[in-house]
Sequence to fold (181 residues):
Amino acid sequence: MVNRTFTPFPILRTERLSLRQLVINDEQEIFALRSDSEINKYLDRQASHTVDDARNFINKVNEHINNNEALYWAITLRDTNILVGTICLFGFSDEHDSCEIGYELQTNFQGQGIMREAAAKVIGYAFHTLKVQKIEAFLHKDNLRSVRLLDKFLFQRSNKPDEATPELIGYELTNSIDKPK
Ligand SMILES: CC(C)(COP(=O)(O)OP(=O)(O)OC[C@H]1O[C@@H](n2cnc3c(N)ncnc32)[C@H](O)[C@@H]1OP(=O)(O)O)[C@@H](O)C(=O)NCCC(=O)NCCS
Fold:
């Protein structure tokens, strides 16, 4: 059974990063991320067109957290406090003890191993603390940076072709640490 209590919000820290909850003050950074055509290139999501859109998005995310439906972290640099990206766990299934992972980084902070560092922490948290048994990721087949990231954690291709969205491919990682008793 997944341990799905997200209050108090779990702040996670790594060598370079602090992963914390979004606040309304992050609206400019969230707007920048969600309106960036390079970042949105392979993402099937509603882009932010205004700062209002970003603020609404932050409110919606925090509502999902309050309802224990999703976890969504702002990835910030510990030395400067700059918000460089986000990472989330969502789509929790109690039937399968599973969830999905999603992530994004500002383009000028890519290629530094930041997402690898953040994802390692979040995946460990999902498996050890939440007791999730499987993490899934769905991505555009041409999103090679994302594929490379998942490969580093030994995610495997899942066979879930979807006729409506053939360009989407599925990956999954099984929890080999904490088997249910
Ligand atoms: C997917 C995404 C987060 C990957 O970002 P990233 O910076 O490439 O990912 P990583 O943190 O794994 O960094 C890897 C790169 O950092 C380099 N690197 C530099 N310093 C490093 C360090 N200290 N440790 C590890 N890697 C380091 C690696 O060599 C690698 O470079 P390469 O890709 O040129 O080989 C990013 O491309 C993104 O935000 N895309 C848009 C949103 C998106 O598509 N999200 C996925 C939805 S499914």
Notes: The domain at 12-174 is CATH 3.40.630.30 (Aminopeptidase). The helical segments are 27-34, 37-40, 51-66, 114-128, 144-152.
